């Protein structure tokens, strides 16, 4: 069944929800017959930063309370307290786009603590500059040639203001604690 903003089939459900409204999120997932006992991956890309820290704390706590085996992968801003970060915040605010959750994007610790303080067992957070350097060098050279990259400092500055953070709960010992990037 396809409606204006959802898609439902026997085994696949695409639903909308305000993820700051746990009641709505929970009832949408329940209506989709989600099995919380199964290992579950949560992915977010530049979304949590739009929700105030109290709201994301509640969301992350609800997930860790509800899903015994889960991995959360979050890509979003980091180092938002420096000059570059402040310019980004102000530019977006000028366009009525407020980053209400920017406080959690101050550094690696603030990114990780919101998981660790809300029931998650562990995880890590790397800025994208670090992640970029871990990618296969031959791929980087090929892509940089295609992109005709000549502004390396600008790329580094941009990459150092985004991060990949992950957190896990692993009640069935899947080995989620061994995930690393190197
Ligand atoms: C910069 S965009 C990121 C787009 C996203 N990575 C994607 O692939 O669609 C920010 C997204 O956050 C979503 N968003 C912000 N606050 C939200 C909330 N409380 N509940 C659900 N989505 C939210 C917006 O709808 C928007 O699609």
From TrEMBL:
EC numbers on record: 2.1.1.233
Superkingdom of origin organism: Eukaryota
Region forming the signal peptide: none
A Gene Ontology cellular-component term: cytosol
Keywords: Methyltransferase, S-adenosyl-L-methionine, Transferase
Biological processes, Gene Ontology terms: methylation
Catalysis: reaction(s): [phosphatase 2A protein]-C-terminal L-leucine + S-adenosyl-L-methionine = [phosphatase 2A protein]-C-terminal L-leucine methyl ester + S-adenosyl-L-homocysteine
Entry-linked SUPFAM superfamilies: S-adenosyl-L-methionine-dependent methyltransferases
InterPro entries, A to Z: LCMT1 (IPR016651), Ppm1/Ppm2/Tcmp (IPR007213), SAM-dependent_MTases_sf (IPR029063)
GO molecular function, one term: protein C-terminal leucine carboxyl O-methyltransferase activity
General function of this protein: Methylates the carboxyl group of the C-terminal leucine residue of protein phosphatase 2A catalytic subunits to form alpha-leucine ester residues.
Family: Belongs to the methyltransferase superfamily. LCMT family.
Protein name: [phosphatase 2A protein]-leucine-carboxy methyltransferase
Record organism: Elysia crispata
């Amino acid at each position: 069944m396809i409606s204006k903003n959802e898609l439902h089939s026997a085994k696949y459900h695409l639903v909308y929800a305000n993820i700051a409204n746990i009641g709505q999120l929970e009832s949408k997932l329940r209506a989709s017959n989600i099995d919380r006992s199964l290992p579950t991956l949560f992915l977010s890309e530049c979304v949590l930063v739009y929700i105030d820290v109290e709201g994301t704390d509640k969301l992350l706590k609800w997930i860790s309370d509800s899903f015994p085996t889960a991995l959360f992968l979050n890509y979003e801003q980091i180092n938002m307290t420096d000059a570059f970060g402040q310019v980004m915040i102000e530019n977006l605010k000028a366009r009525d786009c407020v980053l209400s959750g920017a406080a959690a994007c101050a550094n690696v610790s603030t990114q990780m603590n919101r998981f660790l303080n809300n029931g998650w067992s562990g995880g890590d957070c790397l800025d994208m500059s670090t992640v970029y350097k871990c990618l296969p060098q031959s791929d980087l050279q090929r892509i940089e040639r295609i992109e005709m990259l000549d502004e390396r400092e600008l790329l580094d500055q941009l990459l150092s203001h985004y991060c990949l953070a992950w957190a896990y709960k692993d009640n069935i010992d899947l080995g989620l604690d061994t995930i690393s990037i190197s």
